Amino acid sequence: MESPKELEDIKVTVDAVIFGYFKKNDLQLLLIQRNIKPFKGDWALPGRLVLNNENLDDAVKRELYEKTGIRPDFLEQLYTFGNVDRDPRNRVVSIAYLGLVNPSYHKVFADSDVEDVQWFSVNQLPKLAFDHQIIIDVALKRLRKKIQYQPIAFNLLNEEFAFSDLENLYKTIIGKEIDRRNFRKKIMSYELLNETNNLKKEGSGRPSKLFIFNQEKHRGLEEEGFYFEIKWV
Amino acid sequence: MESPKELEDIKVTVDAVIFGYFKKNDLQLLLIQRNIKPFKGDWALPGRLVLNNENLDDAVKRELYEKTGIRPDFLEQLYTFGNVDRDPRNRVVSIAYLGLVNPSYHKVFADSDVEDVQWFSVNQLPKLAFDHQIIIDVALKRLRKKIQYQPIAFNLLNEEFAFSDLENLYKTIIGKEIDRRNFRKKIMSYELLNETNNLKKEGSGRPSKLFIFNQEKHRGLEEEGFYFEIKWV
DNA sequence: CCAAAAGTGTTAAGAGTACACCCATGC
DNA sequence: GCATGGGTGTACTCTTAACACTTTTGG
Questions:
Q1: What percentage of chain B has pLDDT greater than the value 70?
Q2: Could you tell me the pTM of the whole model?
Q3: Which residues neighbour A231 within 8 Å (Cβ) at sequence distance 6 or greater?
Q4: Which residue ranges have CB below 7 A from strand C?
Q5: Closest chain B residue to A78, measured at CA
């Protein structure tokens, strides 16, 4: 029943979907341009084969840092893509990760074995290699869902951020208008933001107070079984 | 920087965490007894190497059917476990799946390359091979969470079930008491249960009406962006 | 003083929670 | 008629949702 052709010879890779938030309405995604076949010249998620002696998480982190200069503030496993025909060369099973960074804290560069590294707006992605468009769709869906029950969006903002930044970030990711007053009330009710003495003055209008997300307090609450939730935003 | 030792030679497997609900308070899990080393004689999740020409999902389904006789009603990818030292023989990356079945619809048997197949109460598991206890912990956590926002628990019940069965199932999985009246009101408010004309008469007490979960209606609502939710049950 | 963005409170409707008695059956 | 489990309603509290004006700054 088993022909030799069916014997296992499967490559294992990791791929990373890294989101960065630039400014109002601009959620971007980190892509690399391939300089080898197949899909040479096309854009793809950063990723590579997993080495024998490295854990999956370490493999993604290293790959990201070495090939693009990024160390994401948030990184978690997304889903594993393993259909038979995803790569024309070999059977490849890829463990995809979802990461969040504040791009202003990380300067990206292209490693020598990559043609280029660039941020792309999620609304204007180039044609992607392999099944990477599907992976990105899954990642976006997860991100949209997850910011509603876990306070992970802060990883996309500056350490000190204005409340309107958070509000715009949520609007951008969810793609809906939200009621400013109710949103603020809800977020504030969790008492997870520390107010700083600093103000953001930018363009016209009244300057805004800056806040810092209190990671320690959040971890504490999480252990007590607390759950963050923003209903339908 | 790369020694030959680091070159990739990784095996890819799938493992399945299959839950079955027997009766009040008895959530069980399907395990097989290994008859080869390592961990010979120990119990483990059903699983095996993925063949070159089969998708991951197909691999789990086939493995389950061939080795235990089960075709789960609900099956989804859980998480991928790939730490370096999970298997003493080789580097193995395992894509774990979470499945739900009604055990009375599936008679289990042990395939020839397996010592035995058995259901175990989740509260009384034997010592498990590899890192399978960790996989099970992740699966249980996911199940507890997921029944609160997706109506998947019905896959564990008979097609026609009494309301109290559902209630006990939730109590068993979540491990908390729930208010019968409020629970019923909430579930009924989704209008996803069709009442049948049949009654369940069993032991003493008033017979109970039997219901059927309306899959089609649920799929329809899901497409409209409907979300099922049972708050903290 | 005008434009722009930040900051703020109240009310009405809906959802969640707590709680106890009657009903239908078997023995 | 009693023991067992099934079936049901109401009042209170808390959360959500809708909604608009004042404040602070720069130009």
A1: 96
A2: 0.94
A3: A148
A4: A 162-164, 180-182, 184-185, 203-209; B 179-182, 185-186, 199, 201, 204-207, 229, 231-232
A5: B79
